[in-house]
Amino acid sequence: MPKRLKVAVTGAGLKNSPDGREGWAARAHLPALKKLADIYDVVAVCTTQQETAQNAARHFGVPHAFDNVEHMLEALPQIDVVCVSVRPVHHYKVVSAALRAGKHVYCEQPLGISTAEARAMTALAKQAGVRTVIGHQSHYEPATLHMAQLVREGYIGRPLSFNHTYFVGNYIVPRPSHRQWLFDAGMGGHPGYRSGHSLDRVMSVLGCDITAISADMAVQVPERIAVDTGGVIRSNQVDNMNYLLRMHTKAGEPIMGTMQTSFTAWYGSGNHFEVYGTEGMLMLATGSSPDWNKKTGEGDPSRGELKLYGARANLREYAANPTPPERLQNQYREIAIPKKHYYVDGMDRGRGAYLVAQTWHAFAQAINKGYECSPSFRDKLKIHRVWDAAEASVEKRAWGYVDYSGIS
Questions:
Q1: Spacing of C-alpha 287 from chain mean position
Q2: By the 8 A CB rule, do 363 and 131 touch?
Q3: CA dist list (Å): 378 to 112, 124, 171, 284, 385
Q4: What is the per-residue pLDDT across 74-109, written as a single tens digit (0 to 9) for each?
Q5: Do 176 and 226 form a contact (C-beta atoms < 8 A)?
Q6: Mean pLDDT of 225-232
Q7: Measured between alpha carbons, how far is 53 from 51 in angstroms, rounded to an integer?
Q8: How far apart are CA 392 and CA 388, in angstroms?
Q9: pLDDT at site 303
Q10: What is the pTM of this model?
């Protein structure tokens, strides 16, 4: 049986609330890793302040707390994996320190605030011979995994077109003032970095790369109420991204689609992804969000579980008994998800921590068996190149073509 992997989690401070609901590491990573105690042993947490690190260590029962990544790596050489869940502007520094120490790395997205940083970290990981994974936790949603499998197996025939939307209210609802950093363009780098999860889903499900993009991006809501001060939180960070996308299958056949990511959607519908092919269709849709009361101390509210729907075309039947196209609309059914796509038991599948646990489970498999985990740093570097093309498209008001040169 493989040994338990020793993990250090960065960015895991408890500061602004008793359960750390504002911090993704405390809200999702530590609960996920604790659930996977037979696979992982969390040996340290690290933040920029010793007090917040110690608070998190006590809260989650972690033996060591640090306020400096380099000191942590020096003091605990037995660490196998470093989780990087700090603000994007600090990813390069923390990831690089972990890679130079020869550690496997789970890094939240984006990989860095520039393609140059992403390229450097990808090269450093390859040089170190370690495994990497990016925090696109939706990659391991069971419904998404099964959708990708069905596309590969030919359920829809040859993919022709798709539409992906993501509507949430993160950038329009009132927020506490300590969340100001979320609305600072310098913290995220690429203006479209909030579209990363959606881009990963489109590329992983369809199994091919985006080759060209026509993009439009904007700051639609420049300010929102600061709930703790009564003032406003101003923003220069893009909150709406609209993409026309071109892709090609490995056989060179074209696929075309659209993608809209909006962070200014009151009561948003979450994820919706539909793919159409020569022989059928598949669709992901978010179920209704269950009730949540933040007074319970559960910092990770349930968003509802994604469901998969689909239908296959019976061409012989339609040829023998012609049917008006209008009669075929909405003629799809829910598809049951096989148990093999559920890696983790005993967690609410609608919560972010569950999907993070799914990702950590897949990462352990890759580390122990010696293969590249998806989405790896190399996969994420491709998305950075897509963002480069999107930025060029916005600037020139023309199609941008994605350059993947140098990515093996």
A1: 19
A2: yes
A3: 13, 11, 29, 26, 11
A4: 999 999 999 999 999 999 999 999 999 999 999 999
A5: yes
A6: 92
A7: 5
A8: 6
A9: 78
A10: 0.95
Tokens 């060029």, located at residue: 392
Residue 244's Cβ-count burial label (10 Å; 0-12, 13-18, 19+) is middle
Tokens of 186: 């310098």
Tell whether the torsion through CA atoms of 361, 367, 368 and 373 is positive or negative. positive
**pLDDT band for position 327 (50/70/90)?**
confident
Taken in order 377, 163, 187, 27, is the CA torsion positive or negative? Answer: negative
Both tokens of 3, joined, read 């040994």
Question: 368: phi > 0 → left, psi -120 to 50 → alpha, else beta; which?
Answer: alpha
CA distance 43 to 32: 14
Full DSSP string of 227-245: TTTSSEEE--S--EEEEEE
d(CA 81, CA 44): 11
Residue 79, both tokens: 């660490």
Q: What is the spatial distance between Cα 202 and Cα 208, in angstroms, rounded to a whole number?
A: 9
CB 384 within 8 A of CB 115: yes
Q: Say which residue, 287 or 317, is predicted with more confidence.
A: 317
Distance between CA 235 and CA 190 in Å, rounded? Answer: 15
pLDDT tens per residue across span 24-40: 898 899 999 999 999 99
Residue-wise pLDDT for 231-279, tens only, equals 999 999 999 999 999 999 989 999 999 999 999 999 999 999 999 999 9
